[in-house]
Specification:
The chain is mainly beta and 360 residues long. The protein has two helices and 28 strands. The strands form seven sheets. The chain has a five-stranded mixed beta sheet, with no helix packed on it. Residues 1-26 have low confidence and may be disordered.
Length: 360
């Protein structure tokens, strides 16, 4: 079941009608730029890392303070694999697959809370956010059951992550209601509290339920969880929001394209899918932000590519273009060990799934 989740980021929900050229644009202070605005280019050579018991990974999280690297897995009886960060020694599996109260049916998001030492993992099917104490993952002995489970009370969720002040943010599933907003906020009891955010542009031909799919994106927070970052998958926009959902900065580039979708027939229904000839892939995975922001970028035509990418774009603390990193190995998700300036990427290409890039 969890095999679909690596593709969730690219085609979240089948659409019902067609998306065509925009007619109206909401003023949002977008800053446009091109590839020539980046100050430097760098080549990064990746080193494949051997990891035992890892077969088909979906997401990665590094926790340098605890010397841990955690990978979400799509095959086998467990979703989670825990390794030491320095030597990639396998420690344990966790997140048992199943319908039981301590098991999960999917893993749609992963996040680590430094202050509380808790790993958060979302489940779109159970509509819950599972909380795992990091202490339970440090040893191969004993159980690693969730210390807490946050139930969203049958609300549709996608990639729930936590913010400061006991808040949770997710991509807003506008198809549930006749309303528009790109972000949904919840409290730690799973109760919906507010929606906020605006999409890069809005067309009156779009239905509310279409917007999440056309503008599907990666969702992450800054390291201290006071900023929200959206990196869109089929249009090259990047958004940074405050923790209360106020758009602080929106940039468009480096190729300045918008999502292209076609309507296709699926039996009695019509569905919208990315245009294979004209549609392009933009950002991939989730953006990583400390004082600067790193985002994995493709820019390739859908017909010529999959979910991997070979470029990481670096933006400075004002979100101005800074450096283009050209990777010699393709990845689809990554995280950064800030203490050593090392990127850990995931790939389904090649013999080993974990690839390490040195930023120094």
């Amino acid at each position: 079941m969890n095999k679909i989740l690596i593709y969730l980021s690219f085609s979240m929900i089948i659409l019902a009608t067609s998306c065509k050229g925009r007619k109206e644009r909401v003023p949002d202070g977008t800053i446009n730029y091109t590839i020539s605005d980046f100050k430097t280019n760098r080549e990064l050579l990746g080193e494949e890392q051997q990891t035992d018991s890892l077969f088909h990974p979906a997401a990665i999280k590094v926790i340098p303070d605890e010397n841990l690297l955690i990978v979400l897995e799509m095959e086998g009886p467990f979703f989670g694999k825990v390794y030491t960060l320095d030597s990639l020694k396998f420690i344990r599996s966790f997140i048992e697959k199943g319908k039981g109260p301590n098991s999960q049916l999917s893993t749609s998001s992963i996040q680590y809370g430094t202050e509380e030492k808790v790993l958060y993992v979302g489940d779109i099917y159970k509509k819950k956010l599972f909380c795992y104490s990091i202490d339970s993952l440090l040893s191969s002995q004993g159980s690693a059951h969730p210390s807490e489970v946050i139930d969203f009370k049958n609300k549709e969720i996608t990639k729930p992550i936590t913010l400061r002040g006991n808040k949770i943010v997710d991509l807003y599933a506008s198809y549930q209601e006749d309303s528009i907003g790109s972000l949904a906020f919840y409290d730690f009891d799973g109760k919906f509290s507010a929606k906020s955010g605006i999409y890069p542009f809005y067309e009156d031909t779009f239905k509310p339920f279409e917007l999440l799919n056309v503008f599907i994106s990666g969702l992450n927070t800054s390291e201290n969880r006071d900023k929200i970052i959206l990196n869109y998958y089929f249009t090259d926009y990047l958004d940074v929001y405050s923790s209360d959902g106020q758009l602080e900065k929106r940039i468009h580039g480096p190729d300045n394209f918008e999502p292209q979708f076609n309507s296709v027939k699926l039996g009695k229904f019509s569905a919208n899918v990315p245009d294979k000839n004209n549609g392009r892939r933009a950002y991939a995975g989730k953006a990583i932000m400390r004082d600067k922001l790193f985002a994995l970028y493709s820019g390739k035509l859908v017909k010529d590519s999959d979910y991997h990418a070979e470029t990481i774009l670096l933006y400075d603390n004002t979100l101005s273009p800074s450096t283009i990193y050209r990777l010699d190995k393709s990845i689809f998700d990554f995280d950064i060990d800030w203490s050593t300036n090392t990127i850990y990427g995931l790939s389904h290409i090649g013999e080993n799934n974990v690839i390490k890039f040195n930023l120094n």
